[in-house]
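Re-run with default settings, no changes from the original entry. Doing this only to confirm the output is reproducible before filing.
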Amino acid sequence: MDRARQLSEFLKTRRARLSPDDTGASRFGGRRRVPGLRREELAQLAGVSVDYYTRLEQGRARNVSPEILDAVADALRLDVDERAHLHNLARPADARTSSDRPQQVGPELRQALEALTLAPAYLIGHRLDVLAWNEPARALIADFPTIPVAERNMARLVFLDHAARTLYPDWETKARDTVANLRLDAGRRPGDPRLAALVDELTDASRDFRRLWADHHVRAKTRGRKRFVHPRLGELALDYVAMRAPDDPDLTLMIYSAPAGSETALALRQLAEPAVVTHRSHAGAERILAEDPKRRGEIRTPRRRSTTGSR
């Protein structure tokens, strides 16, 4: 999680995926023992001295201008997310957020989640922590209420819960996207001790996480399609969209859906129905008990699943 090391490794891995033939750079030196552009070639493309680029890649350059970073990003052919990550890593530490204040989910967002009765949806915050969810998401992805608050995290579910490999038939893609998103957060929040602890935990526990973390891929959640395997409904191919809260850009609402009238949309309706019944039953029981606590022995609330997810 050291900023200079992250910057160094990120630049090296981006440089390694290019060659002079890809970029039109003049070749330096003779036979290559490692793939990718050499520092001299990258410096030439970026229009900076070899010494300056070397210091930048070693994390020793100070107060690097946005213009130089953009020139290096152009030379490395970085996409939008990678370019933003480079700027975050090169920015002075005191100019980046490292606050560890608990994120709050307002009543309006919780109300919006509950209103999505046919679409699995959940809110994720720093470190991919799961902060809130609706009943369809609980029925499809994980039984979040039974998971300790400190462990409600999508990266932990993907890499530490063996059932995730069944839930996500394209597990490798899901794992790569999860790490790429966590990398972005690491660039934005370099001083976050809980993020560092999470990365250490996953690095120790998962060989796959170590492999993917070393790739330094970065990618923000936007939109796409993901496949799930539900134990009762079988395989579901769902479209997803990620929306950031205007007043909290570190809070993302994930919504999964299917085209209206499709078989998958009908399956989502089946997925939601028992979850909605359970939710209403609990709400009704809690309302009765609130009015008359002595009736606790008469009221039987539906049993919640005791395992992680409905998988």
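The chain has two domains: 3-95, 107-271. The domain at 107-271 is CATH 3.30.450.180 (Beta-Lactamase).
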